[in-house]
Amino acid sequence: QKFRYNDKINFIYDVPRTLFPLKINRLLIQPIVENAYIHGLEGKLGKGNIFLKVSYTEPFLSIEVRDDGVGMSLDKLQELNDFIQSHKKEDSLIPKVNSGLKNVIRRIYLTYGKLSMVHIDSDKNKTAIQIRIKL
Tell me, what's the pLDDT at 12? Predict the structure, then answer.
């Protein structure tokens, strides 16, 4: 992405080295960061930033991906929040979905259970996705 966007987008991360050995599902963070590039910052005029922060307070791993891009529409934000709420309530498997972010949300709740948390906040100048999983 650095090659593709040159210096238009900065990727800033805060992941303590002590957390490197922890294992989580593959491709849990990548689709979220990719969405920040494509949907959040690609259409933004000027430079943009993506922030990744990971922390651990036993027994929960917290992951936050933020960008200072164009944000998402209220309809899209509501659709995603409704999707999150449906996964918190459902005990049965929910059919596969055709959205990378929805797929990540689905896999979080199926793998890590109802104690997990996904929160999405967005307005016209930012999007933040927070994930909390119990390890």
Answer: 94
Token pair 């259970």: residue: 113
Phi, psi at 41, each rounded to 5°: -115, -20
> What is the token pair recorded at 91?
């005990």
Coil, strand or helix: which one is 71?
Answer: coil
**Chain centroid to CA 8: how far?**
21
Two tokens, residue 117: 């948390």
pLDDT confidence of residue 93: 53
60-67, strands of its sheet edge to edge: 9-14, 48-57, 60-67, 126-134, 117-123
Q: Which amino acid is at 45?
A: L
> Which of 75, 68, 84, 77 minimizes the C-alpha distance to 132?
84
Secondary structure (3-state) at 4: helix
Taking 70 as the pLDDT cut, the residues of the chain under it are 2, 88-98
